[in-house]
Design brief:
alpha/beta; TIM Barrel; 6-stranded parallel β-sheet; two-stranded parallel ribbon; 12 helices; binds zinc ion
Amino acid sequence: MKKILFKLLRYSGLPFIFREFIQKNKVTIILFHDIDKSTTEKTFSYLEKKYNIISLDKYLKAINDNSITLPNKSLIITFDDGHIRNYEMLDVIKNKKIPITIFLCSSIINTNRHFWFKYKHSNIITSKLKRISNKDRLLKLKQADFEQTKEFSSPQALSKEQILEMSKWINFQSHTSFHPCLPTCNDNEALSELGDSKRFLEEEYNFNINTISYPNGDYSERDIKISKKIGYKCGITVDYGFNTLKTDIFRLKRLSVNDTNNIDELSVKASGVWAFLKTRNGKKQTFGLNENI
Ligand SMILES: [Zn+2]
């Protein structure tokens, strides 16, 4: 059913109108998680035709240096979490020379630890665990036989070897250590999640970590304050919208694009049409700025 809806929306002309009138002089950031090789090929080919793909670094440089001009319909491609299958994208990225950024969970990469939000157990409702305190979430997971340091039989995240190989073509940044929803953390937990991951990726991998992607798109003013204090230069949300050189650099807007190989869906989502329609009907996002947990 949704497939038909995406087709109708794509050919309604709305994505075209959004591209030509809204995205034209803006910087669009899109978010993927885990796509296979053929989807990567198809997806990047489509995006190359419709947008000018730029690196996150180029955008950050342009903010501070007005001699750098960004192309029309600038698009930044990001991936959250550091899923092991991201490695499959490397050939396509090398061939097409597409600059992407992957946000890593520093305590999950190069281990057999698993992403808590992918854990399946009859007593676990993931969406509910995102809305309770970090301490209670960890307790509930433990009761369901999951600990964030538990080693499973196979990895879910990229290995160090893969990351180092990929880092010649791909920008790696931080997505915290273990992927908690930051507003559910107390001050110390938030500080260590944000700080440890930055330090670890800099020391162990020799990366220059300047950007935090807030897990689940959840953040609070406190989290922004800590991020600034410990040396991040920008923060990326999943709040609906498009960016300019004047957008709050710790609340960069980003559009979530599903990991399917459906180009109709990609067209509708990368243009912002989908998130626009979803935020028009009075329904509030279930993530974003949150001071109430
Ligand atoms: Zn994530």
